[in-house]
Amino acid sequence: MIQKKVCMLGAFAVGKTSLVSRYVRSIFSDKYYTTVGVKIDKKLVSVGEKEVNLILWDLAGEDEYQKVHMSYLRGASGYLLVVDGTRPATLETALRLQKSAAEAVGDIPFVLILNKSDLTDDWEIDGTTVEEIASRGWPVIRGSAKTGEGVEESFSLLVRKILGE
Amino acid sequence: MSTGRDRAQNWADWIELRRLLFEEELEESRKQKEGTQAPKLAPEDVSELLPDAIVHSSKQDTKLSKALAPIIEDSLDTSIKRDPQKIVDAIFPVIGPAIRKSIAETLKAMIQTINAALEHGFSSRSLKWRVEAMRTGKPFAEVALSHSLLFRVEQVFLIHRESGLLLQHVALDAVDVHDSDMISGMLTAIQDFVHDSFNREEGGSLETLQVGELSVWVEQGPRAILAGVIRGNAPQSVRSVFKETLETIHLEQREELEAYTGDSAPFRRSQPLMRSCLEVQTDEGGRKSSFRLWIMLGVLLAVLGAWWGVPALQSRWRWDDFINRVKAEPGIVVTSVAREDGKYVVSGLRDPLAANPDTIRARAQLDSAEIVYRWKPYQSLEREFVLARAKLLLNPPETVSLSLEDGVLIAKGWASHEWIMGAQRLVRVVSGVTRLQDDELVLHNLQGLIERIERQVFLFELGQSQILSVQEANLDDVARSITELDGKAQALGRKMYVEVIGQTDEVGSEEANMRISRGRAERVLSALIARGVATRNISATGIGSEGYTLAERQDRGGAYNRRVTFKVTLSSAKEGGADR
């Protein structure tokens, strides 16, 4: 079976962890975010007849006090950028993170998830912004930690991109 | 002067003429001349000549090496500046062993120093280690260190350095492992974390993680990391094993490592190598050799045993057997067995009548010189000793047999009145005897009379009680004997009693027979009383057709059973009266 390292990036409290927590196998405690700054989970994704074992590096969210350790991206085959739809600032962070990531590991596949799709009414990121992002050729998926919407989709999209399909 | 100038002019003209006439040829000739001096070679020709030229040059002197040195230095320098990884990759498998060799040399020297220091230490354990050191040829300090370290390598991870993805994982069977792929990732993350947080300088990395009894030893290679999970205190030699394993993997699977994109299957090839890291823990070599040591020890013992041990053991067994026999002997109580001045000292109590332990010793084939007895005399209350003591003291005649029941000494047979009286007195000092019972003891001098009376038989006709006239004389004899016995018994303080017993044959009813038998006895009793026998000492009884022996019934038929006989009883001396 093929293994791939995949990172999850995003601003602080965009709900990265809760977005995937139901869909991954986890053996490490959340304490690792605050200590080591990363937590490793595992996610088995089937694409067509292929099964890929994703080793998911869930990086601690970036805020004004804590920077993401970009060295954790080394060797990653792709990453998920998580944005909180109700907080426009998190999009800015995501854009910045994407830039840093591209600098650190080069042009590797990624998928942007707009989290909290269940709270669309509170969304402050309007359609035009999203369209503007999508127009860059970035894959954007609306997701919800609450309903589980878009989670599996994001993983399989990322895997397909990684495998070059 | 003019002639000289003309000549010079002529020479110049001549040269000029030659130039004009042969310029092309001259040029060609010059070129040919130059060509022979420095032939123009094509690169292909040089490449053919170069290896030989280098060999030739290196044989002659070191000029070439000297010439090349700065160039090579420069190229290496340039190469490293451009991409150090290539050089690192290239020399990684070489540099490890080189460094280790140098360190090993240094350590060896150090161990020899420690050796000298430890040389003076002496304990059973160090002696064992010393034997092992002698046997294996290792320095003593190394043996001592290796025994002080108890550990096992439980798991080995081979991790792709860049991505932290697990390439291969092996674990001891007993170790339950799940999600080694996630652990591999986390281990790498922690490595990165430590590296980023504390050690930003190139080359530094996390080498050991310690959690209680467990520690994780990490070896870094250019493309892969080897991490071993160790329980206990492992010696540094384990790290060398890890290092060598990682180097070999780099050497053998370099291409796979470089081309890795997530498929770990090719690295299954390295599993046996990684397993060899696990085997570090079993320390089989040491155990096997210690097993061998035990066998050697066993053989040595066997040889020693044949030479010295077996006889000693046999003697020991004989001794144990002897002591057990002595302990089992009645009248002997062994309280202690000790060894003093090379001799066995057996202490305890011994009844003077008990068997001599020395005869037991002789049977056990033990040397009397080896044994000292310390007995204190005592009187055993065991039955046989009481009896033996009584016999010794009472000294009974051969016609008397003595036995003991519940402390009562019972005498049977015949004895003189004097002996009986003496025995009654003496018996009181025999410990273990409460009294002497002499009821069944018959006095010697009365015995004849008793037998004379009891031998008499009076026979009768069928159904009759009439004493036959031919037996009148017998009646007189019985009467006389009874009277005499009565007199003698009284003189000895005893009482005599005669029972006249009537019997019948088996013909007729039991009731009639009883009556007839009683009648016969009474008839004889009357006849005796009529002849002067005192009535107080005599009685009559009829027992019908009972009381015959089988022989009496068969041999004599009914005739002999129609009879009257006598049973004489003497009271014991003490009681002074008949009790039956």
* Overall outline of chain B: rod-shaped
- CATH hierarchy, class of chain A: Alpha Beta
CATH architectural name of the largest domain in chain B:
2-Layer Sandwich
The main sheet of chain A orders its strands as: 2-3-4-1-5-6-7
CATH third-level topology of the largest domain in chain B: Beta-Lactamase
Q: What is the number of domains of chain B?
A: 5
Q: Helix share of residues of chain B? A: 40-55%
Largest interface: A-B, 26 and 25 residues
Describe the structure.
The complex is a heterodimer of chains A (165) and B (580). Helices cover 30% and strands 28% of the residues of chain A. Chain A has helices at 16-21, 31-35, 88-105, 127-135, 151-162, and strands at residues 2-10, 25-26, 38-47, 50-59, 78-84, 110-115, 140-142. In chain A, 45% of the residues are buried. In chain A, strands 2-3-4-1-5-6-7 form a seven-stranded mixed sheet, sandwiched between helices. Chain A is globular. Chain A is of the alpha/beta class and 165 residues long. Chain A has one domain: 3-Layer(aba) Sandwich (Rossmann fold), CATH 3.40.50. The two termini of chain A are 18 Å apart. By secondary structure, chain B is an alpha/beta fold. Chain B has helices spanning 2-37, 43-60, 63-82, 84-118, 124-136, 140-148, 180-198, 237-252, 254-258, 271-278, 284-328, 357-363, 383-394, 417-426, 444-455, 472-491, 510-530, 550-556; strands at 151-160, 166-171, 208-211, 214-220, 224-232, 332-340, 343-350, 371-377, 400-405, 408-415, 435-437, 441-443, 458-459, 496-503, 538-542, 563-570. Chain B has a five-stranded antiparallel sheet, sandwiched between helices. In chain B, helix 3 crosses helix 4 (84-118), helix 4 packs antiparallel against helix 8 (237-252) and helix 8 packs antiparallel against helix 10 (271-278). Chain A binds chain B through residues 2-5, 25, 27-28, 32, 36-42, 52-53, 55, 57, 69, 71-72, 74-77, and chain B through 160-166, 178-179, 181-186, 189-190, 192-193, 195-196, 261-264.
